[in-house]
Write a structure and sequence with these properties.
Shape: globular
Structural class: alpha/beta
Number of domains: 1
Strand content: 5-15%
Number of helices: 13
Radius of gyration: 19 Å
CATH class: Alpha Beta
CATH architecture: Alpha-Beta Barrel
Number of strands: 11
Length: about 350
């Protein structure tokens, strides 16, 4: 059985590309030598394949993957959410306008401006039909960051809507910029940011939420992109340094698989439980067929986990951590022959 929902895709809609073309400061889009090129802070330029981004073509790709729907989100490394609110607003409007008009089989993660975060933005996005809200990991990668976003997270929790944590920078003002986030060098390979800054962002957000966020928001459903950068595999080191140890007892924290394959997913499931894994592809940035993850897993549990993560299940399984997640020693991810489960 395959999953029916891809919880993590991106789509370059015409309204968003047009809004980025109108900008004179980063991030912006330019047409050069017949190419549509995205320029953004902290990364090398990126060519957008507009012909492959037609809604009909992307919808056909969803069906070709054997899926029923895909949830699109704003690509947070662009830094749109972190712009001053007056700059972020028109870009966010363009993103939502383009994404929400896609129709089936797409659903939409909403996005909000991080400057003076407003919980009412959450209400507006859910009323427009968004399944939940995505935040850049940098916005909640510290206890202070969680505090700044408290009212947004509280509103999501009260409305029983999920949070999707995607790699990306937090607000510019008052937030130190680690040396790791320096400007790109032409000597760096194209994959450098994805293996350094992105991983740092989501690991820090996961640790902050584990250490402080969950206690503040005990009923908030959270989905971490890219298996939280494999942060839960730091369990032993975390425990040895005095951190929380109950990593396998949080039925409201989920991990989607984008950019990872069966081996990494199986290892993570050995820590957090297979019942917390969701399927995400990160299309068009990544091709899930590269790792054969769609073919490798017995995805029966993923469907139930996806319904719980998105609030589409009336099952009481999410109400009690004691009842909903089996301990690490008792949980395994069934894989096809030749891929070791752990």
């Amino acid at each position: 059985m395959r999953p029916t929902t891809d919880v993590h895709q991106h789509l370059w809609s015409e309204p968003l590309v047009a809004a980025l073309q109108a900008r004179r400061e980063l991030p912006f889009v330019r047409r050069e030598h017949g190419l549509t090129v995205l320029f953004l802070a902290g990364e090398r330029p990126y060519v957008i394949e507009l012909d492959a981004e037609r809604a009909s073509q992307r919808a056909a790709q969803v069906r070709d993957d054997g899926l029923e729907r895909a949830l699109v989100c704003l690509s947070s490394p662009l830094g749109i959410e972190a712009l001053p609110r007056e700059q972020a607003a028109p870009l966010l409007d363009a993103y939502h306008d383009g994404a929400l008009r896609l129709g089936e089989p797409f659903g939409v993660w909403g996005a909000i401006a991080l400057e003076h975060p407003d919980a009412d933005d959450v209400d507006a996005l859910l009323e427009r039909g968004c399944v939940g809200v995505s935040l850049p990991a940098g916005a909640i990668s510290s206890v202070d960051g969680l505090s700044r976003m408290h009212h947004v997270l509280e509103r999501l929790e009260r409305l029983d809507a999920p949070l999707f944590v995607h790699p990306g920078p937090g607000p510019r003002s008052g937030v130190p910029r680690p040396a790791l986030r320096g400007e790109p060098s032409l000597a760096d390979p194209l994959w450098w940011a994805a293996l350094t800054r992105y991983v740092f962002d989501v690991q820090a957000a996961w640790l902050a939420f584990l250490g402080a966020g969950r206690a503040e928001h005990p009923r908030l459903r959270v989905v971490f992109a890219m298996l939280a950068g494999l942060a839960p595999l730091q369990a032993e080191r975390l425990c040895s340094r005095g951190g929380p140890a109950a990593l396998d007892h949080d039925p409201l924290t989920f991990y989607e698989t984008s950019s990872y394959g069966p081996t990494a997913a199986a290892q993570l499931a050995g820590v957090v439980g297979a019942s917390q894994l969701l399927y995400g592809s990160d299309r068009p940035v990544a091709d899930p067929h590269e790792h054969a993850i769609l073919e490798a897993f017995d995805w029966t549990e993923v469907e139930q986990a996806t319904r719980r993560a998105l609030g589409e299940s009336s099952s009481p399984a999410h109400a009690s951590s004691d009842a909903s997640v089996t301990r690490t020693s008792e949980r395994r991810v069934p894989l096809t022959e030749g891929v070791p489960a752990r």
